[in-house]
Specification:
The chain is mainly β and about 170 residues long. The protein is about 15% helix and about 50% strand.
């Protein structure tokens, strides 16, 4: 199903009612100066349709029950129009903790059958995964191919600044 976002770009809506979603209202790609990206997560309750000029029905927005963050209280429900959304996608993982380690970052990642701590270091200005461990297991300094796929999927969540946003809003 397709919708038009805030920039007038046609996007594919690949989420269904009842799924955990991440809603990007403004990504770091479109931030100016010291603006912060705006992301909200929650559960998609309903896809709302409206009539278009051709007499058909097109998606116009979503009804969401939000997680607690700097804007929403836990369980707060609201309609968000697609013309205010940059992107909406299914949320596979929760980033539930971090620690700064000598200019690096450690992320504790939880998801379906996933519970790992991934340690990143800055190498030549890029955030690179250097070690990984199961929930309470030993630190492994080699990243397996399976773990590489997981890390690539998690990196879809963006930059270190975005990781901080997730963690800080999740912990309040």
């Amino acid at each position: 199903m397709e919708y038009y976002n805030v920039f007038g770009n046609k996007k594919e809506l690949e989420v269904n009612e009842g799924e955990r979603v991440e809603i990007i209202l403004r990504s770091d790609q479109y931030c100016i100066n010291h603006e912060e990206p705006l992301y909200h997560s929650g559960t998609l309750n309903e896809i709302v349709y409206g009539n278009d000029a051709k007499g058909g029905s097109e998606p116009v927005g979503i009804q969401v029950t939000f997680d607690k963050d700097t804007v929403y209280n836990d369980g707060e429900k609201e309609f968000i129009s697609f013309d205010a959304i940059e992107e909406v996608f299914s949320k596979k993982y929760e980033i539930v903790g971090y620690a700064m380690l000598n200019e690096g970052i450690s992320l504790s990642v939880k998801g379906k059958s996933v519970g790992k701590v991934i340690n990143f270091d800055y190498i030549n200005g890029n955030l690179i995964p250097v070690s990984i461990q199961e929930d309470n297991g030993p630190v492994i300094n080699t990243i397996s191919e399976e773990d590489t796929e997981l890390i690539q999927d998690i990196m879809r969540y963006g930059t270190p600044q975005k990781f901080f946003h997730y963690v800080l809003t999740k912990s309040r």
